[in-house]
């Protein structure tokens, strides 16, 4: 580690993927911990992590994290920000869809989740000083935990396509886990069939790392 430089600040926002559900027996194999380690190695700097995440949180609930002053303060000073959001919106909508086969449920969830993602990013930019150009945001897209449900895959692809339009904004990079997990769900998901196992979290962290560290 480089001596004499301040530690970089990493704020992780999100749902169970940020919590690290599926890696309980190997706590340092979670996405956040692995990405921290890879980033420290790449930048030769110590990185301090603050995690604001809740298992089962929807994109709306993650947006509401910003009502906590501590979150806004941490985001304002963060050099690295990661976000996992949208997966629970899909799971909730998929459960209703499988009971009703009403595609409008999926469409509504897609519209609301992508709008909430946009608002989360607006909140981040609003608490950053206009002169602060040295930070990165890594927004994780969605993999498909329901490969046997065609409608779910279409929903996920539409969601991810929306994220790609967001990635044109400064500081933002999309962590593509959709293609990393496609066809490999059996080997990368934990026994619950939804959350990544340690190998899945490793791939997530590597995908984030491969986006580089421009703006830092």
Number of domains: 1
Structure class:
alpha/beta
Mean pLDDT: 94
The largest sheet has its strands arranged as: 2-1-3-4-5
The CATH architecture comes to: 3-Layer(aba) Sandwich
Strand residues, percent: 5-15%
What CATH calls the topology is Rossmann fold
What do we call the CATH homologous superfamily? SGNH hydrolase
Taken in chain order, the helices and strands follow as EHHEHHEHHEHEHHH
Q: Please report the number of helical segments.
A: 10
What does this structure look like?
With 216 residues, this protein is α/β, with parallel strands linked by helices. The chain has one domain (8-209): Rossmann fold, CATH 3.40.50. The protein is built from ten helices and five strands, in the order βααβααβααβαβααα. Strands 2-1-3-4-5 form a five-stranded parallel β-sheet, sandwiched between helices. Strand 4 (136-140), helix 7 and strand 5 (172-175) form a beta-alpha-beta unit. Helix 6 runs parallel beside helix 7. The longest helix has 25 residues, at 103-127. It is globular. It starts with 7 loop residues before the first strand and ends in a 7-residue tail after the last helix. The mean pLDDT is 94.
Comma- or semicolon-separated keywords:
alpha/beta, Rossmann fold, 5-stranded parallel beta sheet
């Amino acid at each position: 580690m480089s001596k004499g430089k301040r530690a970089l600040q990493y704020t992780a926002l999100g749902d169970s993927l940020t919590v690290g559900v599926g890696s309980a027996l190997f706590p340092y194999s979670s996405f956040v911990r692995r990405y921290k380690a890879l980033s420290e190695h790449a930048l030769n700097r110590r990185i301090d992590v603050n995690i604001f995440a809740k298992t089962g949180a929807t994109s709306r609930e993650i947006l509401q994290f910003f009502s906590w002053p501590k979150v806004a303060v941490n985001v304002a000073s963060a050099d690295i920000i990661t976000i996992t959001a949208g997966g629970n919106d899909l799971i909730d909508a998929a459960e209703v869809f499988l009971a009703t086969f009403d595609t409008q449920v999926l469409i509504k969830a897609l519209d609301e989740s992508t709008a909430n993602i946009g608002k989360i990013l607006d909140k981040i930019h609003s608490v950053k000083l206009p002169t602060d150009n040295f930070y990165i945001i890594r927004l994780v897209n969605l993999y498909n935990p329901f490969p046997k449900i065609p409608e779910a895959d279409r929903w996920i692809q539409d969601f991810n396509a929306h994220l790609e339009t967001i990635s044109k904004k400064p500081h933002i990079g999309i962590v593509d886990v959709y293609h990393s997990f496609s066809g490999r769900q059996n080997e990368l998901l934990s026994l619950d069939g939804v959350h990544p196992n340690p190998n899945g979290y490793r791939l997530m962290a590597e995908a984030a790392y491969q986006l580089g560290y421009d703006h830092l």
